[in-house]
Fold this protein.
Amino acid sequence: MKHLTDEQLAEWLAGESGEETRTHLRNCASCNAEAINMREGVLRYSMALRRQSALAQSAQLPGNFAPGKVLVWHRLRWVGAGVLAILLTAQTAWMMKPHTVPQITRPVANSQPNPQPNTQSGDQMSDDELLEAVNNDLSRDVPQALAPVSAITLARNQIAAETSKSNESSR
Amino acid sequence: MEETLTVPVMSKAGWSAAEFDDLVREHQARIYRILWCELRDDEAAATLTQDCFLKAYRGRAEFRGEASVQTWLVRIALNLARDYQRNRRHGFWRRLLGGNEKEAELATEMAEDAAPRADRALLAREQLQRTMKAVKTLSPQQQTVFHLRFLEELPLEDIAEAMGVEIGTVKSHLSRAVNALRQQKDTL
């Protein structure tokens, strides 16, 4: 008697055997024992893997995994990273930018301003005078930082003379 | 163990987030199991399970319903597992250092669980080890077919669809698995 081939046995194990195979298994004790033993082994193997996988799954996989929420968080993280990158770039650009050297400031003419201006004295500057004074101030030649020392000295003396003059006039 | 499929009604734009969460709950265990069998790595299986559902969620609008949801998810999972195995640089060392021990542990634990009596435990252990050895001799694709059929109890057509092969190929992989089981029996 011809025994079952691998294909026939595989079909029987997969539950897709034909009538011929089933008849043979009913009549052939050897094939029947082999098929049953094989099915038992496969079942045992499946159960083993299922149980192990279930154990691993309970330890590894969160029960409330929601792809929608995960994706939102994922996108938020990317947006956050993008904002951070922009901020860092802006800061680096600002740090790399050449800054202008501050100009020499001259001392304030009257260091003690009158907290209560005397409006009745009559020596209050008009708006036009004030504007002109400011214009004069702004348009005055101020030596640059890299100007020769003699120019700076001259400018300093001039400023000192103006200051003393203004002090005297205010008295 | 056939899991019931309650596929939510799909609108034109695919599933809503809430509907998809239900889908995840329904198929999560199966997808994890498939990936775990493919990779035998707890962490990687968990990561890829999440990746699988994320990928499915992103592409949910493109799902046309030609195959079942289950087949669609299995196909995504198998592709992810294949990519992972391809990219895994230290796979050889991992297998060399820890893989065999894990298999042996698994065989012992499970055989003892399945058959409490000493004589039956011994028999069960031998049977399980024989099957494991036989499965290990199969090619990765043959192993996948074996697992999908006997562990997940997927129909042969669905296996072919998920793996992107002809049904004849699936059958020949299964018969190769049976041949390997027979050879293991002869060697013991």
Observations:
- Chain B touches chain A through 53 residues (CB under 8 Å).
- The mean pLDDT of chain B is 79.
- Chain B is about 75% helix and 0% strand.
- The two ends of chain B are 31 Å apart (CA to CA).
